[in-house]
Design goal:
Family: Belongs to the helicase family.
CATH architecture of the largest domain: 3-Layer(aba) Sandwich
GO biological process, one term: DNA repair
Structural class: alpha/beta
Strand content: 15-25%
Helix content: 25-40%
Number of strands: 10
Distance between the termini: 26 Å
CATH class of the largest domain: Alpha Beta
Order of helices and strands: EHEHEHEHHHEHEHEHHHEHEE
Organism: Clastoptera arizonana
Cofactor: Mg(2+)
Keywords: ATP-binding, DNA damage, DNA recombination, DNA repair, Helicase, Hydrolase, Nucleotide-binding
Length: 307
């Protein structure tokens, strides 16, 4: 019938600037374990909090961002889409050393540019979301860069780190086969993180389903879990004229399915091409956006709106 074609409204904060608004006091109720994390953040020291999907990591991170002094706090994430969700910028954009493949001397030169250096020196609290996707080698390099350009031999030049993510979800964004997690580095150990695990699941309420997800998270699938999942696989869905969304592991596979379904429509195609206001960020946006730069639609095509 019609295709599942993805349409996105995607924004990357390309300018490297600290938020200048007044800090907002959090009024929404936090759970006990979330309150413990915020208290630890306010007491100082480097913090890493983790948890399975649905435990409120993103909710807590936004609370932390709104609690810390905005003029000396930088919110970042490993990807543009994740950075958008925390109203921040990418870690690469903040660090100002490009992909990190340059020599250490060249990285220092890049980070010493006036605009980049100003932010590095002013920053007191660095937040990194989706830390599991940050390659360990890059993490080590920016830690060394921070010490040099801030002229402070403390880890990360004395900046407080607040890291969030789940190392059992997405791995580092690194094409090389020797990519390693941040926690495998000397830089991570030198930061002496206080680690917190959020355990209360808010996204699901069914204890059986939560238990299944916990087992799968660690790659464990028992015969009982297999039986429970198969028992739900034959449930029929009321389509209402809408083709169910297929989840794919790779973008290329999703694109092939979308193109195949689109070709079945007899209507005339219309091509839309993205216009990027910041040409210097185009390559990064194209790599991190969940859709292609060129979008082809037809009347009758199914469309999904994404942030």
């Amino acid at each position: 019938m019609c295709s599942l074609t993805v349409l996105t409204m995607y924004f990357e904060i390309a300018t490297k600037k600290l938020k200048s608004a007044t800090a907002i006091v959090c009024t929404e109720k936090l759970t006990e374990e979330q309150t413990v994390v915020i208290d630890a953040v306010l007491q100082g020291g480097n913090i890493f909090f983790t948890g399975s999907a649905g435990t409120g990591k993103s909710f807590l991170l936004k609370k932390i961002i709104n609690t810390l002094p905005p003029d000396v706090t930088v919110a970042t994430a490993s990807t543009g889409s994740a950075a958008f969700l925390v109203s921040g910028t990418t870690l690469h954009s903040f660090a100002g050393i490009g992909s990190g493949e340059s020599t250490f001397e060249r990285s220092i030169e890049l980070a010493s540019r006036p605009q980049v250096l100003q932010i590095w020196k002013k920053c007191k609290h660095l937040i990194i979301d989706e830390i599991s996707m940050v390659d360990g080698k890059y993490f080590e390099k920016i830690e060394k860069v921070a010490r040099v350009i801030r002229r402070n031999e403390k880890p990360f030049g004395g900046i407080q780190l607040i890291l969030c993510g789940d190392f059992l979800q997405l791995p580092p964004v690194e094409k090389a086969s020797k990519a390693m997690f941040c926690f495998q580095t000397k830089a991570w150990n030198s930061c002496n993180f206080k680690t917190f695990q959020l355990k209360k699941v808010h996204r699901q309420s069914d204890p059986i389903f939560i238990n299944i997800l916990d087992f799968i998270r660690f790659g464990k699938v028992t015969p009982e879990i297999t039986k429970q999942l198969l028992a739900t696989s034959k449930n029929s869905l009321n389509a209402n004229g809408i083709i169910a969304t297929r989840l794919c592991c790779h973008t290329r596979e999703a694109n092939l399915i979308n193109q195949s379904q689109l070709q079945k429509l007899k209507s005339i195609s219309k091509t839309f091409e993205a216009e990027d206001s910041d040409s210097t960020a185009t390559k990064m946006l194209d790599e991190q956006s969940p859709v292609e730069k060129v979008l082809i639609l037809k009347v009758g095509a199914q469309v999904m709106l994404l942030k």
